[in-house]
Amino acid sequence: MPDTIAAISTPYGSGGIAVARVSGSDAIAIVERLTCPLQSAKGYTIHHAMLHRAGQNDDILDEVLVSVFRAPHSFTGEDVVEIACHGSLFIQQELLRWLTDEGCRLAKAGEFTQRAFLNGKMDLTQAEAVADLIASETKAEKDLALSHLRGGITTELDALREQLLHFTSLVELELDFADHEELEFADRSELSALSVQLSQHLDRLVKSFRAGNAIKNGIAVAIVGPTNAGKSTLLNALVGEDRAIVSDIEGTTRDTIEERVVIDGILFRFIDTAGLRETNDTIESLGIERSRKAMEQAQIVVAVSDKEPGAKSQEPEVSGQFVIQVQNKADLLGDHTAWAAVKDRILISAKNGEIEPLRQELVRLAKEQLNHNGTIISNTRHYEALVRAKEAIERVQIGLQDGLSGEFLSMDLQDCLNALGEITGKITSQEVLNNIFAKFCIGK
Questions:
Q1: What digits encode the pLDDT tens for the residues 201-213?
Q2: Are 381 and 423 in contact (CB under 8 A)?
Q3: In DSSP terms, which residues pair with 65 in a beta bridge?
């Protein structure tokens, strides 16, 4: 029988309230000895109590509220008791000490959620979504984690596995009757149509990882352009503080500087880069090379210029899937009539903080990239497993075209099933479980 575990579930430090969570077969009995009678308490009930040592009712540590959740209708699937006490660090540490003295073991990182998984309360994708929900910094992250927690990925993958299991069983049935070559239980044309359908479905899920990764880690925006165009000033304006050094000296920025900012509920990673120009300075050249790499990897490129239309000086070449052409230092342009004809540039004044048109365009392009119909994958482990599943089903397609025997088809179908099963935890190892739950906070 698993140990009864305990931990403080609220963040470390003093506060108005702290919550200690206890889970296991002895949870109710242990907490009862420190608080009030709970053996006959119904699940989902809260009880007012004085916190004291067993048998020392006059030595009160705190006045608390005790919540009872009975198995299997609890987060972990076990008996769970939560003690809400005042947020004094002394009270929290004493409470934990008393709980361990009464028979609890201090919980490991993620052990409550791991027990929920092992007791069938959730699968691995939902367990990982718990961690993502806790770590979410934006509405988009929260919505994605909540979708996964509600079983969005599980429902879709279970449907795919069900179709695969049907055909795999028929193919393996054929192998049981290998002496009768004329018997064919699995319709090859139907299996071919299914493999194409599954390949397309898996391809869509794999491609959704780009959007999921952007939601989780932020839309990468490279701010590029010639020296002294105001790139660092623009970064500071977007961040709302003096993050990058600003100077009239050309080549001041010699390395990339990255800052994370939430705009309209979307996380952006703004990358200030070294000015693009020809130079013999070795250090500056390295910075320019990093600028070009940042531009290649960014999802949005903001090309900053302070040159007037038709200016003789050559603008550096800028590339990217989504490029926003920005004309900075609009405060110095006055009513210059040449700008009336310029339709492809957004006029801003980074120095004066007049960047709202750029912010709006950034949000528009970000939403365009994040607008992905259906399930979105944001976990690297899921992505890698889906890639393996897609490769396996593509081998099935090739095998069908080449007329391979059922034995080889069965192996590839099983590889696909195993890869999908790894995502939800139907097929997993203790090493994988330890790696996943070790990333959780204590008490969750």
A1: 999 999 999 889 8
A2: yes
A3: 48, 84
Give strand pairing partners of 68. Answer: 45, 81
What value does the mean pLDDT take over residues 378-382? 92
Which residues are within 8 A (CB) of 254 and not within 5 positions of it... i.e. 6 or more apart? 274, 283, 284, 286, 287
Whether omega before 226 lies within 30 degrees of 0, making that bond cis, reads: no
Residue 75: per-residue pLDDT: 95
Structure tokens at 228: 């002294």
The structure tokens 């972990």 sit at 76
Within 13 Å of residue 123, how many CA atoms lie on the same side as its CB? 20
In the block, which residue shows the tokens 């310029």? 342
Smallest CA-to-CA distance from 99 within 136, 135, 64 is with 64
> What CA–CA distance (Å, rounded) separates 282 from 286?
6
Rounded to the nearest 5 percent, the helix, strand and coil shares of the chain are 45, 15, 35
Contact between residue 304 and residue 230 where contact means Cβ atoms under 8 Å apart: yes
pLDDT tens readout for residues 125-177: 999 999 899 888 888 889 899 999 988 899 888 888 888 887 777 666 655 54
Residues 68, 45: contact at Cβ < 8 Å?
yes
By CB neighbour count within 10 A (0-12 exposed, 13-18 middle, 19+ buried), where does 251 fall?
middle
The structure tokens 């300075």 sit at 281
Q: Output the six-digit token pair for 177.
A: 């009757």
- Does the structure show a pLDDT above 50 at 250? no
